[in-house]
Specification:
The protein has 4 helices and no strands. By secondary structure, it is mostly helical. Helix 1 packs across helix 2.
Length: 81
């Protein structure tokens, strides 16, 4: 999966700024740079994530389902923090 389009990244930044979880201590430009970096990292490491999955999941799950698994794991890790 390719990196997100520029407009999607901009929309995400605006959406985050409207939430109670909006990170303080960074400017709008710095938040946007963080979104860009996170998306670039996800794009660069997608193959490593796929390879880390057990073979059964790697072959049976769709790309969307694999992303959903990762989303759930990250969300639970954040909620536990």
């Amino acid at each position: 999966m390719a990196a997100l389009p520029d407009q999607t990244r901009a929309d995400m930044s605006a959406d985050i700024q409207r939430t109670p979880d909006c990170p303080g201590g960074v400017t709008k430009a710095e938040l946007r740079a963080a979104i860009n970096a996170a998306d670039d990292w996800a794009d660069a490491n997608a193959a490593a994530y796929n390879a880390a999955l057990p073979a059964a999941a790697r072959t049976a799950l769709t790309a969307r389902q694999k992303a959903r698994v990762l989303e759930f794991v990250i969300r639970k890790r954040w909620e536990a923090a």
